[in-house]
Amino acid sequence: MVELEHLSKNFGAEKAVNDVNLAVAQGEFVTLLGPSGCGKTTTLRCIAGLERPDGGEIRIGGDVVAAPQRGIYLNPEDRNIGMVFQSYAVWPHMTVFDNVAYGLRVRHAPASVIKQRTMKALELVGLPHLADRYATKLSGGQRQRVALARAIVYEPRVVLFDEPLSNLDAKLREQMRVELVRLQHEVGITSIYVTHDQSEALVMSDRVVVMNNGVIQQIGDPQTIYARPANAFVANFIGVANLMQGVLLGRSGEFCDVEIPLGEGYAPLRVQAAGGESAVAGQPVMLSLRPEDIAIHFARPTGIGNGNLFEGEVVDTIYLGSLLECRVFEVGIQTDHYEQIAPQQKVFLSFSPDHGLCLTG
Ligand code: ATP
Question: Which atom of ligand 1 is found nearest the CA of 34?
């Protein structure tokens, strides 16, 4: 439904979007995720027609809407897309009904179609009872629902979302996430969603596109992005990861053997981890370990072997309510909040080789 081929957009010398390739299927929910300034909004604005790309091609439903090298550029209103922004952008001098109906009126739809489609869109976002209320007399969450109804009422080929939930309070944001996903499944709209909030991306998306410095770092479903990050940037940006510099010693079957120096006075760690397929022995690598994937033991456990078991001393602990976080060396571990763990306590840490990931980038 939406295809980006070698898309580039520069601002002066800065490559805001640098050779981005992406194909979004019909009915798919794809999130562009990355830190501030990574180029996600510029990518979205190029798809919308609010920004003219410098290179590459954009196709929507197979139609070329922008191809600077061929002099093709369609205005936003000719692209048949819906947009929902961070600022609610609903018209205060209009009722909820008129706000939503606007897109149909400018397309000269007959009155009966306007009424039927507007009410259907309002039902989908749970606001049919407020059709006659003025937009100024709505809460933030209700306004954002109006903006959503307005974006889907004329059944666009794709809806573009630019951080639409970031102005809402935390509880409402969580509720709207779930509602947006429900709506997306119900209506089957193709959605491209920009956010810097990784939990939002993981909860809502069929696929996540992680960007940094205008370049795509990884495209994958939420599980893959979280469990198998392509590089240290993705591992660190999505969730929390312990990243430890080491050297690849070699491979044992499906796993690689990695040596990690722990600093003066400590023997280096030798561990087994997944990934690292492209690495060769002697190459510097990074071990990525999620805090929740490390088990903590108070006596040397049996049956784990020496591989991924190591001994250390607790540096400090942080009580987070639902879990307890503690540090051993520089390694962060999340464990059961009922555990009694104190600084200086001697502990053993272990992790399963397929929970550790050897990264080369
Ligand atoms: P944020 O989450 O902060 O909105 P973003 O990932 O959406 O960030 P973009 O808005 O796409 O990032 O910006 C990418 C880069 O391009 C940034 O370095 C930004 O400063 C620059 N940029 C964006 N718009 C313009 C503009 N109109 N003129 C000059 N530079 C711009």
Answer: 6
Confidence band of 242 (pLDDT split at 50, 70, 90): very high
Atom 11, ligand 1: residue with shortest CA distance: 39
How is residue 351 written in tokens? Answer: 């992790």
Instruction: Say if residue 306's pLDDT is above 70.
Output: no
Ligand 1 site-directed mutation target among 38, 44, 167, 195, most atoms within 8 Å of CB: 38
pLDDT of 314 over the 60 cut: yes
Q: Give yes or no for residue 40 having a pLDDT over 70.
A: yes
pLDDT at 44: 97
Place of tokens 């805001």: 16
Q: How far is the CA of 40 from the centre of ligand 1 (A)?
A: 8
Residue located nearest, by CA, to atom 3 of ligand 1: 36
pLDDT at 167 over 80: no
Write the DSSP string, 94-115. Answer: SBHHHHHHHHHHHTT--HHHHH
Between CA 142 and CA 172 the distance in angstroms is 10
Return all residues near 77 (Cβ < 8 A) that are at least 6 apart.
none
Report the nearest-CA residue for atom 1 of ligand 1: 36
Alpha carbon distance 49, 61 (integer Å): 15
> How would you label 108-141 residue by residue, b for 16+ Cβ within 10 Å and e otherwise?
ebeeeebeebbbebbebbebbebbeebbeebeeb
What do you get for the CA distance between the two ends of the chain, in Å? 31
- Asked whether the whole model's pTM tops 0.90, one would answer no
pLDDT attached to residue 88 = 63
Q: How many Å apart are CA 268 and CA 258, to the nearest integer?
A: 10
Between the alpha carbon of residue 137 and those of residues 94, 143, 238, the distances in Å are 11, 9, 38
pLDDT at 292: 92
Q: What is the mean pLDDT of residues 68-89?
A: 87
